[in-house]
Amino acid sequence: MKECSKSIMRRLHEPNFANRYFVGDGLDVGGGPDPLGLYIELFPRLKGVRTWDKEDGDAQTLDGLEAGSQDFVHSSHCLEHLDDPAAGLANWFRVLKPGGHLVLMVPDEDLYEQGEFPSTWNGDHKWTFTIRKGSSWSDKSLNLMDLVADLGDACEVLKIEKLDATYRYSLPRFDQTMTPIGECGIEAVLRKRTEEELAQGGRRPKQGIVSKMEAFLLTGFQF
Hints:
Elements: H1 3-12, H2 15-21, E1 24-29, E2 46-52, E3 70-76, H3 85-94, E4 96-107, E5 128-130, E6 141-143, H4 144-149, E7 155-163, E8 185-192, H5 195-200, H6 212-219
Parallel strand pairs: 1-2, 1-3, 3-4, 5-6
Antiparallel strand pairs: 4-8, 7-8
C-alpha cells in the first residue's frame, strides 16, 4: 500500500536523505505504482529521478543503463519480485556512480509474510527477507546482510534497519501494510566507495591543516 509514500515523512526527519542520499539525478527501480518523483520538491538536492518499470525493461538487468551513470538508485519493494535478487542488487549497484547511494526497501518476512509462504498477501513475491537469521521458517528466505556482502569491498553499508516502529505485535495475523502507518519492512542504505577509498582502505579526511580560526568556528573553543 504505497510503501514509498509511507516512507517520506520518516525520511524527512532523517537529514541524510535530503543532504546525502537523494542527491543529483537518480533511478527509481520498480517505482511505477508509487514513484519517488512525486516528492522531488521535498528533497532540495534531488535534481531528477527516472522511474524504471516494466515498460522500461527488466529490473533485474537494467539493460541499456551504463555502469556508473546514476547519482543514486532507489527501490521500494521490488527486489522480492525478481527471479534472482542477488543479480538484481548487483546491477542496481553497478549503475551507481562512485560515491553514490543505493536506497532500498524489502518486506521483512516475520512482519509481512508472518510465517506463511507463498505469501498470503502478495502472490507475486518470489522470496522472503530478513536482516540476518541462522535459520528461517521460509524455504525462500534471503539474508539481506549476505546479499550486501556479495557486493564486495566497494559496498559501504550505511544502514540496515527493520522498519517496525509502527508495527503492532499484539494484533492477530493480518496484512499491516494495509493500514496507513504499517511499513513491515527492512530499509538498507548502501554507498559505492570511490577508487581512492578502495586503494587506501576507507574514507580519509582531506589533506591539510585546520586553521585556528576554522577550528574556533567549528568548535566554539579558542585554541
